[in-house]
Amino acid sequence: MADDLARRFQTRVDRSPYGIQRPDECERTVTLLRTSDGARPVYILRLNQEAEQGLLGAILCDNRYFHRIAGIVSERQFGIGAHARLWTELARRVTVGSLANPVTLKAWADSDEALKPLGGAGYLVQLVKFGSSLDGSGAEDYARIVVDAAEHRTVMQIARELLDRSETLSGAEMRAWLENELSEFGTQSAAQFDGIDPRTLEGLPVPVREFIVTPWIPKRRATGLYGIGGAGKSTLMQMLCTSCALDPIKFPHANWLELPVRHCRSVLLFAEDDVDEMHARQDEINRAYGCTYDDLGAMLWLPRLGTDVTLMKFEGGQAVRTHHFSNCCG
């Protein structure tokens, strides 16, 4: 009877849905923390090169995707150093309104020490091929894949350091250290706060500030003009755009409020004026400047009184540009 009970018990263990194994089987399935020579097994870092390439390529194809994923991924989450460098350069250019594609980045890519071994500008062309099939949603999916791989690498680094400390720490000390590391990791992942180490700027050329109106209105920066209703804010801005549109050779003394301006193109999106109001206002400005409508080829009017001019909205906690922004600003 004892033998029969033993056989029945052994069969139950072998067929246990909880995966209970006999001691001799356990010896064959345990993963050793150290090999026979005392070294720890090599951990292969998780990296999705294709996702990084596709993500960067999508942004090179359409810079608008950058604004959709900037809150998802950061420079430090790219596993390939050259990709992190490229992300930083893309962010630097796109955030100030500059076009970033293989053509505009050619000189930079061919001179960057991290990208040169990969082919410089030629590598950017390859990235475009990887990302050309992605739309905005696809770019977001790729960004999350990059983030997941980065989080996996970070957690595994914490695990390896915990193993190194395990020989000198008690169980309670290990738990406390692990909880602190994971808490800090969670906070950093949520904030995605990246700083700039000033030492990385050593030897780099100091950027020159550019202005539309020196030193009051910087180029490629948001500037607010405040005043009570009816004070003339719209007139002032239409005057400014007129000054910027005039050929400095034909109108060498053109200025705005007696301040020199930069000759450039402008788009006037007026949500509270129709074309008749802008026309009447422009006629007075032309007489004051001594110019004609033929001199205003660098201006584009968008009178939008009575229409929807929503340029941005929130979707899922993220700021998203509307089609009106694309139509107005390209």
Task: Record keyword descriptors for this entry.
mainly alpha; DNAb Helicase, Chain A; two-stranded antiparallel sheet; 330 residues; 47% helix; elongated; Rossmann fold
What would you say about this model in short?
With 330 residues, the chain is mainly alpha-helical.
Structure commentary:
The model is unreliable at 5-33 (pLDDT under 50). By secondary structure, the chain is mostly helical. The protein has helices at 2-14, 23-29, 49-61, 64-69, 81-94, 106-111, 121-131, 136-165, 171-191, 233-245, 275-289, 323-329; strands at residues 211-213, 217-218, 266-270, 299-303, 312-315, 318-321. The strands form three sheets. It has a two-stranded antiparallel ribbon with strand order 1-2. The longest helix is centred in the middle third of the chain and has 30 residues, at 136-165. The protein is built from twelve helices and six strands. The protein folds into two domains: 49-201, Orthogonal Bundle (DNAb Helicase, Chain A); 211-312, P-loop containing nucleotide triphosphate hydrolases (Rossmann fold). It is elongated and about 85 Å long.
